[in-house]
Structure to design on (756 residues):
């Protein structure tokens, strides 16, 4: 036991002390933050002051409220005339308001250079507001009631429709895309972790083999202890890196928010600026925006302690299962370039699981999702989606089966990998094939 | 008293027999040469003693007990294929390997300091292995092997990769370790170092042990009653004097002095030879020809080949 701890310690410290680890730890969050901030910065950066010439044929849009960046100017010219002069003028855009705007609820914006999202939104909402005011005044004149303002507020409604699956009577369930997304984020983390650090296990084994230190070490410890120590040590490296990433990314974004965006922009709001205006509008027309209650109901529906507990279980289970397989591959080859033929059967289930996970977000109870969440090689990734979307009481039997199978598979894989490892690490200069590996599994010690 | 003995140890890999009922006895506080051509099975035997693998049948007794995992810390092993973590610092790495052999951090540090001073390599402590030359790395590896003061030390080709000065340094260390009570198993192809260092040997060929015993006994056993005589005088008289009782193997002349190798037949003693040739030539010197380990090695391997062509 003491020796395993020593091995874990070495595997951990040598990796954490490497320059590449430090660089990755710093660059990862910087990249992520830079990506977010950069795109926000750009969308704001191109937000030059807008001088908007208002060609108002309805004569209702005088004295619109200016903002820091958007200034309205007015003209009595006809559209055709204004358009001609617009090009030579200093105005950046021209808004044309049709005389019968009430009927169409639409205006046209001519621009030389497409205005940024915020300016666009500002113009739109300013006109909208004015339009609403006019409509309200018109109603007031008709019904002569001072209470109309209140009525109006009461009438203005934002309806949310919650989808409830009723395909099986008596078993309705609330489905939530948001919950699926959260599950998917966890699934992606597991997928990335298995890939990045599984390969590190393999490299570590190959390193020991090619540097020939392996023989010295296994004259002190059992090969199995060395293999497990390595897998565990690297798992800790991965956890450390993820925790640091999360802390650093949050830190950088918080600081950046303070420094760059003291203005009233809401970062989340602006982040959507990466999407085209068209997409934004579609999104908004398709589904009502989440209001505060809606968000809290998503969070209520996701039981975070349960979700995180399961995440840790599948995270470790999946990594240990694949880590053992990667260690076996590393032991069977002489150099990394020989790993191809053995990598394929290990990476295919991983990639398959990732694909299933994507479709499981839409249909978490479909047969493919169900089976993939039970079979150990794919379950660590796919089950995360179902844990987030399917209620616990319904998932429990499958969840239990999946967890038990994962543990069984991990134990079997480790024993099998241990046997391949034990033989492979001392085997040099031999091109190993599957038949050979199969024989190694049954060698007695 | 033996520190280690193997009894009919057999190891089979697939359809290839690496060891076939090999029994050896390694006396305490001695140097034991484990000899044999490449691929004979020496490394397989060493790995079994190190518990890297186990025998298919037969057993290994260490200090009167069946070999088990608690003996690991009493054995030190320098494999033929040397290697250390290239990216790890020398001191850190030596500490790690010593602690894997059961030393506490403090003990390991103290002993490492002693050895680093002794070998005059203190400035290397914070260097990475990849910055050292091959010979330097081997020195570090030797230290790591002996640091936990094993009672049995297994050295596989310990001199390969060293320049003559460092090879000498290592040789002296080996002798000192022996003096301090360490038993050493030396696996090597370098027969002159076997003659110089080993008390006992075992010769393994194609999975079989074909010869063992003390170096002295084996040499005596392989004596052929042959003498080398240096003399001044006439070759014809010398040759004619050697009648049927002696066999002249070789004769040649350098400057004034002739050298002849003569084998005694029919249990003749050396005095007979002397009285026979004394009247004919002037004798400068006479020595018994003692076979070198090299000759014994080659002779035994060839014999085995002729006797058991199918093994």
């Amino acid at each position: 036991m003491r020796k395993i701890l020593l091995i874990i310690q070495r595997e951990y410290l040598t990796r954490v002390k490497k320059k590449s680890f430090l660089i990755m730890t710093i660059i990862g969050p910087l990249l992520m933050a830079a990506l977010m901030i950069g795109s926000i910065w750009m969308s704001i950066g191109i937000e030059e002051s807008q001088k908007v010439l208002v060609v108002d044929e309805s004569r209702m849009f005088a004295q619109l409220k200016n903002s820091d960046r958007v200034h309205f100017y007015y003209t009595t010219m006809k559209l055709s005339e204004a358009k001609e002069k617009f090009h030579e003028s200093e105005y950046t855009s021209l808004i044309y308001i049709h005389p019968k705007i009430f009927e169409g609820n639409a205006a046209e914006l001519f621009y030389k250079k497409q205005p940024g999202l915020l300016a666009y939104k500002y113009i739109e909402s300013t006109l909208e507001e004015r339009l609403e005011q006019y409509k309200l005044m018109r109603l007031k004149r008709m019904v002569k009631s001072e209470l109309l303002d209140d009525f109006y507020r009461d009438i203005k409604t934002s309806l949310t429709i919650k989808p409830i699956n009723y395909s099986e009577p008596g078993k309705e369930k609330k489905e939530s895309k948001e919950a699926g997304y959260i599950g998917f984020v966890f699934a992606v983390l597991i997928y990335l972790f298995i890939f990045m650090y599984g390969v590190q296990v393999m490299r570590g084994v190959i390193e020991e083999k090619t540097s020939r230190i392996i023989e010295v070490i296994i004259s002190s410890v059992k090969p199995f202890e060395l293999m497990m120590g390595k897998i565990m040590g690297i798992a800790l490296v991965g956890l450390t890196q993820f925790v640091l990433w999360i802390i650093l990314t949050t830190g950088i974004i918080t600081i950046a928010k303070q420094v760059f965006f003291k203005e009233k922009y809401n970062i989340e709001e602006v982040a959507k600026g990466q999407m085209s205006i068209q997409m934004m509008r579609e999104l908004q027309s398709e589904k009502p925006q989440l209001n505060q209650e809606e968000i809290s109901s998503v969070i209520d529906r996701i039981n975070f302690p349960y979700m995180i507990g399961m995440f840790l279980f599948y995270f470790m289970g999946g990594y240990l299962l694949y880590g053992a397989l990667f260690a076996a591959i590393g032991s069977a080859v002489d150099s990394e370039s020989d790993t191809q033929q053995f990598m394929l059967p290990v990476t295919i289930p991983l990639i398959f699981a990732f694909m299933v996970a994507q479709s499981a977000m839409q249909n978490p109870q479909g047969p493919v999702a169900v089976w993939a969440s039970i079979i150990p090689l794919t379950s660590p990734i796919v089950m995360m989606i179902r844990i987030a979307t399917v209620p616990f009481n319904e998932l429990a039997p499958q969840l239990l089966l999946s967890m038990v199978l994962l543990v069984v598979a991990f134990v079997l894989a480790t024993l099998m990998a241990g046997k391949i490892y034990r033989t492979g690490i001392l085997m040099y200069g031999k091109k190993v094939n599957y038949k050979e590996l199969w024989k190694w599994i049954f060698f007695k010690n | 008293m033996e520190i280690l003995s193997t009894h009919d140890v057999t190891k089979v890999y697939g359809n290839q027999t690496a060891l076939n009922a090999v029994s050896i006895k390694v006396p305490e506080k001695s140097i034991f040469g484990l000899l044999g051509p490449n691929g004979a099975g020496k490394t397989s035997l060493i790995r079994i003693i190190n518990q890297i693998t186990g025998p298919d049948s037969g057993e290994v007794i260490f200090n009167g007990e069946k070999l088990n995992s608690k003996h690991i810390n009493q054995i030190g092993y320098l494999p033929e294929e040397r290697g250390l973590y290239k990216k790890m610092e020398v001191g850190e790495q030596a500490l790690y390997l010593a602690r894997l052999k059961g030393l506490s951090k403090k003990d390991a540090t103290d002993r490492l300091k002693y050895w680093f001073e002794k070998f005059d390599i203190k400035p290397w402590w914070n260097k990475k292995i990849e910055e050292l030359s091959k010979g330097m790395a081997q020195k570090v590896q030797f230290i790591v092997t002996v640091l936990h003061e094993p009672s049995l030390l297994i050295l596989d080709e310990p001199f390969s990769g060293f320049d003559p000065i460092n090879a000498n340094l290592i040789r002296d260390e080996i002798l000192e370790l022996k003096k301090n009570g360490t038993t050493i198993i030396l696996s090597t192809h370098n027969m002159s170092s076997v003659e110089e260092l080993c008390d006992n040997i075992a010769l393994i060929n194609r999975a079989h042990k074909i010869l063992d015993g003390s170096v002295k006994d084996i040499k005596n056993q392989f004596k052929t009653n042959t003498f080398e005589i240096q003399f001044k005088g006439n070759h014809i008289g010398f040759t004619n004097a050697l009648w049927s009782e002696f066999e002249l193997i070789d004769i040649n002349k350098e400057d004034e002095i002739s050298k002849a190798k003569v084998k005694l037949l029919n249990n003749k003693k050396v005095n007979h030879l002397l009285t026979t040739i004394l009247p004919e030539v002037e004798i400068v010197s006479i020595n018994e020809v003692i076979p070198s380990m090299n000759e014994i090695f080659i002779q035994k391997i060839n014999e085995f080949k002729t006797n058991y062509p199918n093994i």
